[in-house]
Amino acid sequence: TTRKNDGCLVRGNRGEELFRWVLNQRGLTDTAIQNVINGWHESWRRHRQRLGQFDEYWISLGRRREEILKVEDPELVIANFISQLEAEDATNANQANCRSALSTLFQLQGFKKEKINGVALQQIMKKPQAGMRKPIKEEQIWNYDQLLKYIKSKSDQKVQLSEIEFLGIVIATIMGYSTLRLIEVHRAIVSKLPKGCWQVKTAMFKGHDTGVTVIFRPLDDLSICPTQWLSCWKNRRKKKDEKLPVWWLYSKNRVASYEETSKAVHIVMKACKIPAGYTVTSIRSSSMTKSIDQGATKTEINRATRHRKGSQAVANHYDKNLNDKIRTRLAKL
């Protein structure tokens, strides 16, 4: 495992070095390049890995890095690279991510999309893209009440909880009652409002590329209420630490990383006896499955999940109803 991690680190560093070098050659300053990287957020880690993979391929052809700047037909380069990956039995996701990272690199060099994504490349990508599509099928999902019952059992034991498990419960309750993704919760700004309410303000980059604000109000059962758990999480702090970021870990003396928040939620899921193999995102699925079983309307589900752009437009401009009703039902065990 250590050797594999070391290999990923080396490949990622190569990819980042290539990326920075190409943009620097175009004339972008280090500050401008860093701003481009920041715009990718957590997906930058995937981009740098795939660019490192391309750098290895390019050098294996006996080509020098300087020759990338002289490429006249970027579609040809990408098509040959993806075809080589397919011959090496690379996964569909790997091929798609490599295509995405390399296309972006050439766009940042100044090539237009039409010059990059031609008919030949589109034909080559049909197979991996088809392989990545999730089929519509019936799947068994764990019962959301498993999570709620566990959280309820820990309500009177907050002092005994480890910091990482406490973090996992707080994030799990937010995800379950808001259907926000983990990355959206991780980047969120959380603030207390009057009357015991809490506001979670974050940005959605998947699907909608917009800001979203969720307001939690106290539920009848405070033991499984996000407002109660957020209050207790914040009350652990000393007065001088009140302005620290919401996901601050005293044990690490820094903000929890995305990986650490994921690990924290997985610890909670394991404690709930949720079968191994389920991702953190399954909290969203389980929450919405319970809402559907409780008779939530299609409009309520669309509004709560923010899946469809059409319903998002309605929610933004016309549908001002709150999601309190659906959260109240979710809290019923």
How is the topology of this model organized?
Layout: H1 2-26, H2 30-38, H3 44-60, H4 74-87, H5 92-109, H6 113-116, H7 119-132, H8 144-153, H9 163-178, H10 182-186, E1 189-192, E2 198-204, E3 210-216, H11 226-235, E4 248-249, E5 254-255, H12 258-271, H13 282-293, H14 298-305, H15 309-317, H16 324-330
Antiparallel strand pairs: 1-2, 2-3, 4-5
GO molecular function: DNA binding
GO biological process, one term: DNA integration
Protein name: Tyr recombinase domain-containing protein
Describe it for me?
It is a single chain. With 333 residues, the protein is mainly α. It has 2 domains: 2-132; 144-330, hpI Integrase, Chain A (Orthogonal Bundle). Helices cover 58% and strands 7% of the residues. It contains 16 helices and 5 strands. It has helices at residues 2-26, 30-38, 44-60, 74-87, 92-109, 113-116, 119-132, 144-153, 163-178, 182-186, 226-235, 258-271, 282-293, 298-305, 309-317, 324-330; strands spanning 189-192, 198-204, 210-216, 248-249, 254-255. The strands form 2 sheets. Strands 1-2-3 form a 3-stranded antiparallel beta sheet, covered by helices on one side. A two-stranded antiparallel ribbon has the order 4-5. A hairpin with a 4-residue loop joins strand 4 and strand 5. Mean pLDDT is 85; it is low at 313-322.
